[in-house]
């Protein structure tokens, strides 16, 4: 399907390919050109001079998870802003107030999270 | 374009939902302000919020009942307002009102102190009301998600209990899977027809030169699978006993009674209205599912020891009875289906209320069938009530459950499904056996252990009494329910 | 061509998501799935949704997945014994399912390919994208279909309330610093007699 879409995004294409190409070059050249003679001490993971005695992964507080979920929700809220901002001149005051209503809904949620102490950290 | 002019009437028609959503937001803020206030020393406000929620439900049902307009397609034909939505919404609101009255004391005893419990119930009622009135695939999907999200949280609300979190997780994973199936079906339908509106889909399907008929057939399979999961019918029922048993009993009651009518009313609209010309396909699938759930539940429920699981399986059987007349795709069938749904909601209230009486506080272990044995000595009236409710579920004549079953047989026979009617008749004898064996446990089994029952509160007793009176009243005068179900069935087409 | 390549990468990485032994690796393959699907959406000229994929799925949901994987405390998933029992039945059902979808899609959607001969001329007016994807979305979502938008807001609110209810520990009280109380504290009101 011939369309102007590809022509408009052509500079992006070029930038993308250049960046992929460049990163491949840097990665492979550093791999090839660098002198490598590995031994056991070099390959083992380094932690302040002694052997790591614990796995890096352990269970942690569920609050991190809560923060991540709240982040997703407000991220989605921000996503809804983009089309609104672009077409604001066409959607009259009705569209404007729709968005305000949406913001109020989530702002009440934010207020709830704040008051109940979901954002606090002891 | 002047949108406030365009939507002026729509907003007036949609007023109950707008009121409900605003009320939810206000309850959210009111609750959090009061619950975290230092001056009142962090009060427990669940009883306060409970009364507020009852009041909100009452006002919403008043607004729904006295909506001046009879029929309208609103918001760019994405929502509908007609007799079906009005009656279904009233039943959703009324049954959740009754459920709240039933399980308030349970919530207090089992120390669910967070006021968010009632808030989430309000959210799910809002979602169910939207689902009833949606006339577009997107709005239906949004409503289903709203309802399902709050249900997942309600199921796993007792965080300390392993059973409750397990129930919530199971429900969440399987529910998300079924939502995915639904979404895939919707996208296939949209891909073929280019529209998500029910009327436009109907017009596409009626067109003899329509090219996407095969894709619509596949989409229908996914659609039916998703919806059968949501109402817990036969091949997709496996989550029901676990979720019902694990989640807090108040949540179980809410799951069992309220959402069925809302989901079914949208499902009926989709099947009998939009895809009416494809009734050969969905009719057969639904018939299979209906027969499967009736037979399966009858034979599995006999073996059950736990009262909650038994009631969950009997619920699967009733879903089979609900789907059976729908599969005929006739007006009589739809009327019988809606009649059965309404009667099922009224009958489930005393049955599940009985469960609440037997559950003493937090002790989840005390729910085997044998604990009903002490009922005649401790509270003879409650024993009579329980046995009458089970008789009505079984369909024994002086109660309205008899009519609801017989209408379904009539509708099956009218569509010349003689073999099906015969098989279902035979199987319902089996299901009657286990209902009556519960009554036998109540009256004729001596229980050696001490049994303690929850004292019946005033609200609970009112709900139980009213629902029992209705069971008798509608047997001698079923015209009201018949008219309501006929109105609902007529407004589908 | 590029689309084909991307979809092959997508399918392979989607298979690797479920077959990778290390859960962290499968999350990274999931990120690759999101990226390639975003790219294919881009090639289908749905640029807003593709950027949204990168923003929401790669940026936020993959992070959440990593959190969950970290919390699960599973190092390497063992190959289950049941796997071989379920494989024949599952692959059989999956194959039937795939063929069914494939055949119907083949039947219905192929005639719209450009090589069918019906596009002997190009109407250049159709090729000008006068409205971009994001503009179309914006002009419909906030006006004609605003109930969907507001219901989506309520769904997000439910998600927020649900997440807080299920995870927050209400008993613990965080220690606060009340600045005004510290400033108001003087010699006069900080010395008092305790009887």
Automatic annotation (TrEMBL), chain A:
It holds the Pfam family Oxidored_q4. GO terms for cellular component: mitochondrial membrane; NADH dehydrogenase complex. It is an enzyme of class 7 (translocase). The chain crosses the membrane at residues 12-34, 64-88, 94-114. This is NADH-ubiquinone oxidoreductase chain 3. It comes from Nannochloropsis gaditana. One of its GO terms (molecular function) is oxidoreductase activity, acting on NAD(P)H. Its EC number is 7.1.1.2. It catalyses: a ubiquinone + NADH + 5 H(+)(in) = a ubiquinol + NAD(+) + 4 H(+)(out). Its main location: membrane. Belongs to the complex I subunit 3 family. It is found in: Membrane; Mitochondrion membrane. Keywords: Electron transport, Membrane, Mitochondrion, NAD, Respiratory chain, Translocase, Transmembrane, Transmembrane helix, Transport, Ubiquinone. Core subunit of the mitochondrial membrane respiratory chain NADH dehydrogenase (Complex I) which catalyzes electron transfer from NADH through the respiratory chain, using ubiquinone as an electron acceptor. Essential for the catalytic activity of complex I. It is a multi-pass membrane protein.
From TrEMBL, chain B:
It is found in: Membrane. GO terms for molecular function: NADH dehydrogenase (ubiquinone) activity. Signal peptide: none annotated. Pfam families: Proton_antipo_M. GO terms for biological process: ATP synthesis coupled electron transport. One of its GO terms (cellular component) is membrane. Keywords: Membrane, Mitochondrion, Transmembrane, Transmembrane helix. Residues 134-427 form the NADH:quinone oxidoreductase/Mrp antiporter transmembrane domain. The chain crosses the membrane at residues 13-36, 48-66, 86-103, 115-132, 169-192, 212-232, 253-275, 281-302, 338-359, 371-396, 416-436, 462-484. It comes from the Eukaryota. It is a multi-pass membrane protein. HAMAP family: NDH1_NuoN_1 (MF_00445). PANTHER family: NADH DEHYDROGENASE. NCBIfam families: NDH_I_N. This is NADH dehydrogenase subunit 2. It comes from Nannochloropsis gaditana. The gene is nd2.
Automatic annotation (TrEMBL), chain C:
It holds the Pfam family Oxidored_q3. InterPro entries: NADH_UbQ/plastoQ_OxRdtase_su6, Nuo/plastoQ_OxRdtase_6_NuoJ. Residues 1-20 form the signal peptide. It is a multi-pass membrane protein. One of its GO terms (molecular function) is NADH dehydrogenase (ubiquinone) activity. Its EC number is 7.1.1.2. It is an enzyme of class 7 (translocase). The chain crosses the membrane at residues 50-72, 84-105, 144-168. The keyword Nucleotide-binding does not apply. Gene3D superfamilies: NADH-ubiquinone/plastoquinone oxidoreductase chain 6, subunit NuoJ. It catalyses: a ubiquinone + NADH + 5 H(+)(in) = a ubiquinol + NAD(+) + 4 H(+)(out). It is found in: Mitochondrion membrane. One of its GO terms (cellular component) is mitochondrial membrane. Keywords: Electron transport, Membrane, Mitochondrion, NAD, Respiratory chain, Signal, Translocase, Transmembrane, Transmembrane helix, Transport, Ubiquinone. Belongs to the complex I subunit 6 family. Core subunit of the mitochondrial membrane respiratory chain NADH dehydrogenase (Complex I) which catalyzes electron transfer from NADH through the respiratory chain, using ubiquinone as an electron acceptor. Essential for the catalytic activity and assembly of complex I. This is NADH-ubiquinone oxidoreductase chain 6. It comes from Nannochloropsis gaditana.
């Amino acid at each position: 399907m011939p369309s102007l879409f590809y022509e408009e995004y052509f500079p992006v294409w070029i930038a993308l390919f250049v960046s992929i190409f460049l990163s491949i070059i840097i990665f492979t050249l550093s791999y090839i050109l660098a002198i490598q003679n590995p031994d056991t001490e070099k390959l083992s993971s380094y932690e302040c001079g002694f052997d790591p005695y614990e796995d890096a992964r352990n269970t942690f507080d569920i609050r991190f998870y809560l923060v991540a979920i709240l982040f997703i929700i407000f991220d989605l809220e921000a996503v809804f802003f983009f089309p609104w901002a672009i077409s604001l001149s066409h959607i009259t005051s009705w569209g404007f107030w729709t968005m305000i209503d949406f913001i109020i809904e989530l702002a009440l949620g934010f207020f709830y999270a704040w008051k109940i102490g979901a954002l606090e950290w002891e | 374009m002047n949108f406030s002019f365009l939507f002026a009437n729509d907003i007036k028609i949609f007023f109950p939902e707008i009121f409900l959503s605003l009320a939810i937001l206000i309850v959210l803020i009111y609750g959090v302000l009061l619950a975290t206030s230092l001056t009142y020393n962090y009060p427990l406000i669940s009883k306060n919020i409970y009364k507020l929620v009852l009041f909100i439900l009452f006002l919403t049902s008043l607004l729904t009942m006295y909506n001046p307009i009879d029929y309208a397609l609103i918001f760019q034909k994405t929502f509908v307002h007609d007799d079906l939505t009005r009656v279904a919404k009233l039943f959703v609101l009324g049954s959740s009102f009754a459920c709240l009255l039933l399980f308030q004391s349970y919530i207090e005893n089992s120390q669910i102190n967070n006021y968010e419990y009632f808030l989430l119930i309000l959210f799910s009622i809002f979602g169910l009301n939207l689902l009833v009135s949606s006339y577009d695939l997107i709005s239906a999907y949004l409503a289903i998600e709203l309802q399902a999200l709050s249900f997942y949280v309600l199921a796993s609300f007792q965080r300390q209990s392993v059973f409750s979190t397990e129930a919530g997780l199971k429900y969440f994973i399987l529910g998300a899977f079924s939502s995915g199936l639904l979404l895939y079906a919707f996208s296939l339908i949209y891909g073929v027809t280019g529209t998500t509106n029910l009327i436009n889909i109907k017009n596409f399907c009626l067109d003899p030169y329509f090219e996407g008929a095969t894709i619509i057939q596949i989409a229908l399979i996914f659609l039916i699978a998703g919806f059968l999961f949501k109402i817990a019918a036969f091949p997709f029922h496996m989550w029901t006993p676990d979720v019902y048993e694990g989640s807090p009993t108040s949540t179980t009651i809410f799951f069992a009674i309220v959402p069925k009518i809302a989901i079914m009313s949208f499902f009926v609209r989709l099947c009998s209205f939009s895809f009416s010309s494809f009734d050969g396909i969905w009719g057969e699938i639904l018939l299979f599912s209906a027969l499967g759930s009736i037979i399966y539940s009858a034979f599995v429920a006999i073996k059950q020891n736990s009262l909650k699981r038994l009631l969950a399986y009997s619920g699967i059987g009733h879903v089979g009875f609900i789907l059976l007349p729908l599969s005929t795709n006739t007006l009589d069938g739809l009327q019988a289906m809606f009649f059965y749904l309404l009667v099922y909601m009224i009958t489930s209230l005393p049955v599940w209320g009985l469960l609440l009486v037997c559950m003493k506080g937090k002790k989840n272990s005390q729910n085997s069938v044998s604990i009903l044995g002490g009922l005649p000595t401790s509270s003879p009236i409650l024993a009579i009530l329980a046995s009458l409710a089970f008789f009505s579920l079984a369909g024994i004549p002086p109660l309205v459950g008899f009519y609801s079953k017989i209408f379904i047989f009539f509708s099956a026979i009218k569509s010349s499904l003689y073999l099906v009617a015969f098989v279902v008749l035979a199987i319902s004898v089996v299901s009657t056996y286990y209902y009556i064996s519960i009554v036998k446990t109540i009256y004729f089994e001596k229980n050696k252990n001490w049994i303690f029952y929850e004292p019946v509160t005033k609200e609970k007793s009112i709900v139980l009494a009213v629902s029992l009176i209705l069971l008798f009243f509608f047997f001698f005068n079923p015209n009201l329910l018949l008219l309501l179900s006929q109105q609902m069935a007529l407004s589908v087409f | 061509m590029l689309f084909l390549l991307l979809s092959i990468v997508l399918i392979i990485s989607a298979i690797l998501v479920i077959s990778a032994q290390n859960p962290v690796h499968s999350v990274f393959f999931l990120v690759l799935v999101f990226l390639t699907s975003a790219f294919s959406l881009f090639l289908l000229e749905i640029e807003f949704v593709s950027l949204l994929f990168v923003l929401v799925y790669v940026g936020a949901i993959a992070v959440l997945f990593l959190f969950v994987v970290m919390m699960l405390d599973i190092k390497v998933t063992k190959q289950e014994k049941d796997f071989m029992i379920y494989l024949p039945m599952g692959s059989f059902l999956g194959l039937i399912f795939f063929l069914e979808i494939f055949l119907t899609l083949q039947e219905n959607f192929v005639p719209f390919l450009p090589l069918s001969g019906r596009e002997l001329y190009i109407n250049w007016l159709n090729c000008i994208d006068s409205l971009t994807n994001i503009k179309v979305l914006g002009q419909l979502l906030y006006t004609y279909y605003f109930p969907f938008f507001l219901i989506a807001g309520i769904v997000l609110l439910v998600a927020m309330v649900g997440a807080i209810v299920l995870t927050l520990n209400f008993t613990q009280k965080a220690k606060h610093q009340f600045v005004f109380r510290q400033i108001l504290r003087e010699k006069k009101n900080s010395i008092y007699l305790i009887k």
